[in-house]
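Follow-up to my post from last week.
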Amino acid sequence: MLSAIKTQGRRPWDGIIPEVELAIYRKTGWGTPTGLGKHPALLIIDVQYRSMGDEPLPIEEAIKLMPTSCGEHGWRAVPRIARLVEAFRSIGAPILYPHVAPKGPQNRGQFEQKVPGVMEVPQHGYDFVAEVAPQPEDILIPKFQASAFHGTPLTSYLVGLGVDTVIVTGCTTSGCVRATAIDACALNFKVVVPEDAVYDRSQTSHAVNLFDMANKYADVMPTEQLLIALRQIAAAG
Amino acid sequence: MLSAIKTQGRRPWDGIIPEVELAIYRKTGWGTPTGLGKHPALLIIDVQYRSMGDEPLPIEEAIKLMPTSCGEHGWRAVPRIARLVEAFRSIGAPILYPHVAPKGPQNRGQFEQKVPGVMEVPQHGYDFVAEVAPQPEDILIPKFQASAFHGTPLTSYLVGLGVDTVIVTGCTTSGCVRATAIDACALNFKVVVPEDAVYDRSQTSHAVNLFDMANKYADVMPTEQLLIALRQIAAAG
Amino acid sequence: MLSAIKTQGRRPWDGIIPEVELAIYRKTGWGTPTGLGKHPALLIIDVQYRSMGDEPLPIEEAIKLMPTSCGEHGWRAVPRIARLVEAFRSIGAPILYPHVAPKGPQNRGQFEQKVPGVMEVPQHGYDFVAEVAPQPEDILIPKFQASAFHGTPLTSYLVGLGVDTVIVTGCTTSGCVRATAIDACALNFKVVVPEDAVYDRSQTSHAVNLFDMANKYADVMPTEQLLIALRQIAAAG
Amino acid sequence: MLSAIKTQGRRPWDGIIPEVELAIYRKTGWGTPTGLGKHPALLIIDVQYRSMGDEPLPIEEAIKLMPTSCGEHGWRAVPRIARLVEAFRSIGAPILYPHVAPKGPQNRGQFEQKVPGVMEVPQHGYDFVAEVAPQPEDILIPKFQASAFHGTPLTSYLVGLGVDTVIVTGCTTSGCVRATAIDACALNFKVVVPEDAVYDRSQTSHAVNLFDMANKYADVMPTEQLLIALRQIAAAG
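User reply:
Got it. Predicted complex:
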């Protein structure tokens, strides 16, 4: 295992979680970095037009066209995800696309009752965003619940591929990303969340979910820093 | 099904999630209340001395004696949990205690590497808090991960008992409560989180996790309001 | 719950499991019938042309055209499954179709290495057998492993529908039917396997798997007897 | 990966599965050996006195003292399991003990209704058989259902340990061994069942379950042959 990475500088939750609360976590040893393993997989979750609309717009405008959209927040993450895709393709590591499966009347479950709007997404909204769309060698994971592991064959794929580290990108930070990170950690995969390659409709919730994941389940770091770690893995190859 | 409950008045996340973000959720129909079913189960998660210390102290003091403690935040939740226990006993509905199993060296997994302190909890810390401790007819669910469903027989118990609604209490809001609510929703149980019967070490994270759950996975309401709904179930029974 | 059904007369495993072994099970109380609950669901597993070929042929001939075929054994089960479908439609109870998803190169897992031929099934082999094909209101469950529960949202559907009893039909008795019955029992659903509505390529393995399931996991009975029980449920409605 | 092993000579199901049925499997390519990986784990399932009684007796006698006993069939497997334990200890590979957890009234689920006798096992019956009992460094997995994976943290342990191959020993072949092999295969672990280190109350069912597993889910071989493969792993290590 490569040595764990200590993230420096400004963190996404600075100014949102008060210092008095940060001190409690610091004093009791939460959020220890665990580093990457040798066999990472990249998860690109729900990067479909339903989650960002067809073009970069402020979220207040974007939701008028596509109510499930995160607007510009999503579009800003795309180039970072694209760089991770490129890095994974160059080392031949697996890329998986857990994505929202189109919902029929049978899918009106508890989540759909909480959020009825998800039943109204137009067909086009389920298309993958072209800039980071899957290639034939990638693995598609249609899913019906928040976690990419819940009710899907994801665990079987990861075990079969010998993966030890899961990189979680996409959206939303407070929804499918968070749920997936919890499950990946519970299964004892190492987990990394590149903080600027995930996105949400609420920036406050985005930041606090990054804080929660960084303390409990995942190493949270900028994409730039993750790319350096991936190059180390490739070099150690 | 009883009619869903519209929560009134001040919400725990007011003043933390800005109005401009709240407006986005409101406009796009997140957080619709779904109501309770007919067969609720009460989950009391991790209400062990490890999560609140032996007596009510401010969290800054409590963590000096028990680093995993939430201090007074936990102690304040105990009487609300006790009222729910009483209500469940009076209608003969099941009470389950998912709880942290003592950790041996074999349990040093991804979570324990993120939070090494959880390996150092003294044996006494695993005892149930006396005020709401299990009775012989209750169901104990030792667990090793955040979600009460992960790697446990909880789903089998709930199916066998014919449960359709899961009430989640205990701690932490941003840890095991959140992870359990996600899984319960993904399994299509109705989910209720009584906002003052769950607790955390960060009040900001507590509030934002309630916001996330209220929008996506659970009906979030004060214990008082939930007790009224439970009485309606008993009367309809 | 309706009173459990005691199956009379000749059993499928008579003449295969020796009397001396049957006596051991009898003396120690295995195979107690548990009866149906009030809310059954019908699973029709893998009733696709891949599992029986395009027309009824002896299995020795059928495998020359479709190597995964069970030949006539499958075709004989179809009219019994059709009667169950009719019964379920008449009472408005849910019908679910767990079925083999077409396999791409990414699906070459442990099972596909044991049975390389499953990678070569022609596209037409994945079509549902017309006599019992799904209608728009039915639920499709593509699956990649033997059990209809493994890596699929089946549990979520059953919980959401309030199902308490799972009827397992289709194929193969020693493969997906057995694996599904084990999981359904483990989840505390009541399980029924109509012995002449499931099929296999080995009649010996078919019979012994029915024996195993009847003793441990499921009530095993002829379709005729199950239809009577379903009428009782409808009448009690 | 080591080259897969082609098992020679007499197979446990010879004389039980007729040649005409064996020919169908042979012609259509079932039961291809897949070999071991580099990181095996040994599962010793339910080798507790409840499954074999206190001393070797013919099963007909043994069930009078302990109704869940497999009698001599179990005792014959013990020295083979002991040799595997020794081999695993010598290479420092993990040994896990999925075992039947004592059953309280809350555990009267679907399985316990099929087999009421399992509720009556005396406390001593839950003790591990001394000859192959766990050491402090081994991992205990209490379980309530047939599969060692169902409702347990077994997957998390195997992922955390970097295991790629699961060796399944213990009992019963037609119960917990079979259920565990199905799940291990579904998760894409390589699976080996040493045919003389697993046991059952019915010799017919034992043989047919080995046949099913050998064709679909696992490499089935004598313990002697597995020990050779393990020595190759140790030498390559």
